[in-house]
Amino acid sequence: MRVLLVEDDDRTAAGVTAALQAAGFLVVRAREGEDAWFKGDTEGYAAAILDLGLPGMDGLSVLRKWRAGGQRLPVLILSARGDWSERVEGIDAGADDYLPKPFRMEELLARLRALVRRAAGQATAVMASGRVTLDTRHMSASLDGMPVHLSPQEYRLVSYLMQHAGRVVSQLELTEQLYAQDFERESNAIEVLVGRVRRKLGTDLIKTRRGFGYLVERSDP
Ligand code: CA
């Protein structure tokens, strides 16, 4: 799950990045407004964490420009200025949630997970499909109730497909979501990863739609 972190302060960015990575997210950072707007508008992210005070174009302007252009990326605003008028302004501009600084990492993560879930139309932190259960709070997977260890990359693949259950996800989309840099993107990386996941979680979780991509079936609770 790829998240865009827009934050000009290096210390805050380093702390948030470490916490997000430990929680299984892939983090791409933008330091200033123009770059943030461009990245959010052209690259695929599960959500954006947006600081309001930025050099150049400020955070609210970035958000307004995204929304004016029809970009519906879920946005969590982060700001030192926690007063109510800013909060109202942010929400009016199209923010999905708002967290005043200073904040606890646990709260940021919980809000971010909730945001990503809501965007995927899903209400709880635990997802299930067939014999497989995924708990996004602990980044843990189980098969028939038995815990299965997944690498961070394997976990990201399974959670992305499960978040988008019922939809065929292309190899290109998965590559964008799972790898931060172009040079990391081997042409068969996703196939190899899917193979590893099937060995761990069974062959019936991830279906191949040849020529189109991969699919996890939606399962009714
Ligand atoms: Ca700032």
CATH-derived architecture of the largest domain: 3-Layer(aba) Sandwich
The CATH homologous superfamily of the largest domain is called Response regulator
- Radius of gyration from the CA trace? 18 Å
Give the strand line-up of the largest sheet. Answer: 2-1-3-4-5
Key traits:
221 residues; 11 strands; 4-stranded antiparallel sheet; 5-stranded parallel sheet; Rossmann fold; globular; binds calcium ion; Arc Repressor Mutant, subunit A; single chain; alpha/beta
Describe the structure in your own words.
This protein has a five-stranded parallel β-sheet, with helices on both faces. The protein folds into two domains: 2-119, Response regulator (Rossmann fold, 3-Layer(aba) Sandwich); 126-216, Winged helix-like DNA-binding domain superfamily/Winged helix DNA-binding domain (Arc Repressor Mutant, subunit A, Orthogonal Bundle). It starts with a strand and ends in a 5-residue tail after the last strand. The chain has helices spanning 10-22, 33-42, 59-68, 84-92, 105-119, 152-163, 171-178, 189-201, and strands at residues 2-6, 26-30, 47-51, 75-79, 97-100, 126-129, 132-135, 140-143, 146-148, 206-209, 213-216. Helix content is 41%, strand content 21%. With 221 residues, it is an alpha/beta fold. The longest helix has 15 residues, at 105-119. The protein has eight helices and eleven strands. Calcium ion (CA) binds next to loops.
